[in-house]
Design goal:
This protein is of the alpha/beta class. It is globular and about 70 Å long. α11 crosses α12.
């Protein structure tokens, strides 16, 4: 029995190694335009392969729009950008019925949500009604206009951005809506030598053209292959221990965290942590998940799923630090 399992894992490993060959090509193509920001590019790929969505937090000018636009060009997918503003309506996102006088009937005008890659820029600038219209499309992968329902094209990836600096005129995303995002990635400024390259490229006005290097079919095949990545029961247990420690820290020798956590991760958190770990293994061209894969994605999956209390805020303790303590305490298989 043991030998069969080993053979199966070897077979999966070989298959994944072949299937994931395009990752290097795709990353190289994106790096022609995007300097640095390796973490953001990697997280975009995890979101794409795991059929999830990404919430990006970072100050303006860190190539967030450029990153998803470049990815869309590299896989020849359709791209649309929605600039969220306080006066935006749900119809501006999903589309609406328009009366056609010639035929004396209503026709459907589809909104910008009908694309493979959607950038929801500054999502926290629009009211809850608009946010929920977008989040329904993200969750159900379909849109209803009038009495007709349209299935969204695959792959479908929403990358929403929010500016952490400005709080004026913003509507914070409710916890239940934030939970719909597979990953929340915080991006930082580029390194000094990277920014030097960015200045040079912009001053010269020379920008590399992004070519299609991967097909939509390859992406869809890869999404199916990710599910085949082997995850041992020990790894599953490790993931569950991390998730349960956010809910019941006292059971994991972390009683000091109990007054700091207002709510822990939902089952969506454990599903997304397992999926993201499989995607990370796939990106690293491996057919099986190791504990390091889980640790690599745990912050992005959980930082928006662990609620902190007023007590934690008063002590300047972030959800990041709470996750660090949990990950350092839980025994690695």
């Amino acid at each position: 029995m043991e030998q069969n399992t080993t053979l199966d894992i070897n077979a999966i490993n070989e298959k994944i190694e072949k299937e994931s060959a395009f990752i290097d090509v795709l990353t190289l193509e994106m790096n022609k335009v995007i300097v640095g920001q390796k973490h953001m590019v990697e997280r975009l790929l995890i979101g794409l392969l795991g059929q999830g969505h990404i919430l990006l937090e970072g100050v303006p000018g860190l190539a967030k729009t450029l990153a998803i636009n470049t990815l869309a060009k590299a896989v020849h997918g359709s791209f649309s950008r929605i600039q969220f503003t306080p006066d935006l309506l749900p119809a501006d996102v999903v589309g609406t019925l328009i009366y056609n006088m010639k035929v004396n009937d209503f026709s459907i005008k589809k909104g910008p949500i009908f694309a493979n890659f959607v950038l929801a820029d500054e999502i926290n600038r629009a009211p809850a009604k608009v946010q929920s219209a977008l989040l329904e499309a993200m969750q159900e992968k379909q849109v209803t206009i009038g009495d007709e329902t349209f299935i969204l094209e695959k792959p479908f990836l929403v990358m929403a951005t929010q500016n952490p600096v400005e709080q004026e005129g913003t509507y914070p995303l409710p916890e239940a809506q934030v939970d719909r995002f597979m990953l929340k990635t915080v991006i930082d400024y580029p390194k000094l030598n990277e920014e030097q390259l960015i200045i040079r490229a912009n001053l010269k006005g020379e920008f590399n053209k992004v070519n299609q290097v991967v097909s939509i079919d390859q992406i869809l095949r890869a999404q199916a292959s990710v599910r085949e990545v082997y995850m041992d029961e020990k790894i599953e247990k490790y993931i569950l221990d991390i998730i349960f420690a956010t809910r019941y820290p006292e059971k994991y020798n972390l009683s000091d965290l109990k007054p700091l956590i207002s709510f822990g991760a939902s089952p969506r958190g454990s599903i997304n942590l397992a999926t993201a770990a499989k995607c990370y293994a796939f990106i690293k061209r491996r057919g099986y998940v190791i504990p390091e894969d889980v640790r690599a994605v745990v912050h992005d999956v959980l930082r928006h799923r662990v609620g902190i209390t007023y007590e934690a805020e008063a002590e300047n303790i972030t959800s990041e630090e709470i996750i660090n303590k949990i990950v350092n305490e839980i025994e690695v298989p």
